[in-house]
Write a structure and sequence with these properties.
It is built from ten helices and ten strands. It is of the alpha/beta class. Helix 7 runs antiparallel to helix 8.
């Protein structure tokens, strides 16, 4: 979360919704508690807390003063199609907690990790730990008990509208951002072992700068966005039904704001 007392705004960083890109752009304006910039902190009662990604109920419990500023400051967040977001969150989980790119997971690993995530979420933990926070409901970051707390919501498809609105609120024409945390997978899965073994050999034989140049060129040629990749697990009926049910409010919110920006 980025909170600016000087400019009186809050940007709520919902994981896997292009939030890292926007967060970097507005980070210079953050002048509130530095805890909100920390990745992980252990709370004496609540356990492991990811302070960058705080659902609103948890924020209210941890810092009532910060939470109350939603009543008087402008607040912003980005929402994403829950089906796309779930795939992106699985890619992030594979990289961060399994130690592999999602394209490196075999079929059994994909099913195992997906089922582990679903089982965890269906247990409805009081506080979602950092290794599952990317799967938290988007609605939990923008409303409480059906009441909208974050007033300015934008679909990731119209990120430009958020950048313009937030930029004007700060006093600049618009904010400029790149794209961070965009997961890549192999265009040609059968060649992935050649890529990894070749990179390992090149790392041992070539100067560091040359190896990095070759590695970057190879990734650009042989890998693509995970959005374009096909993973059969995500087409399974039970996974689709889980997303429709668990994220039903997220689906409705995303469709609502898509209609709003199209009107």
């Amino acid at each position: 979360m980025i909170l600016s007392d000087q400019y009186r705004f809050v940007f709520v960083h919902i994981p896997k919704c292009a939030g890292t890109s926007v967060r970097k752009a507005v980070l210079p304006f953050h002048d509130a508690d530095s805890r909100f910039l920390k990745a992980i902190e252990i709370h004496p009662k609540l356990g492991q807390i990811d302070y960058r990604h705080l659902p609103l109920k948890l924020l209210r419990d941890l810092d009532r003063d910060a939470f109350d500023k939603f009543d008087v400051y402008e607040s912003y967040a980005i929402l994403r199609d829950p089906f796309q977001r779930f795939r992106s969150a699985m890619s992030q989980r594979a990289k961060m907690y399994v130690g592999k790119e999602i394209a490196q997971l075999d079929e059994d690993e994909m099913y195992s990790e997906t089922n582990r995530v679903i089982d965890y979420l269906l247990a409805e933990p009081a506080v979602i730990t950092s290794d599952f926070i990317h799967f938290a409901r988007q609605s939990d970051f923008v409303q409480i008990n059906g009441k909208r707390i974050v007033q300015n919501l934008y679909p990731v498809e119209r990120l430009d509208l958020l950048l313009t609105a937030l930029g004007r609120h700060i006093g600049i024409e618009t904010l400029e951002v790149g794209h961070a945390n965009k997961t890549k997978v192999h265009r040609y899965p059968k060649l992935k072992h050649v890529l990894y073994s070749g990179s390992s050999l090149a790392r041992r034989l070539l100067p560091g700068s040359l190896h990095e140049t070759l590695r970057t060129s190879a990734r650009r040629a042989l890998m693509t966005s995970s959005e374009a990749a096909q993973f059969p697990i995500f087409e399974q009926n039970y996974v689709v039904d889980f997303i429709k049910t668990y994220y039903c409010t997220d689906i409705a919110l995303h469709q609502e704001i898509l209609r709003d920006v199209a009107a």
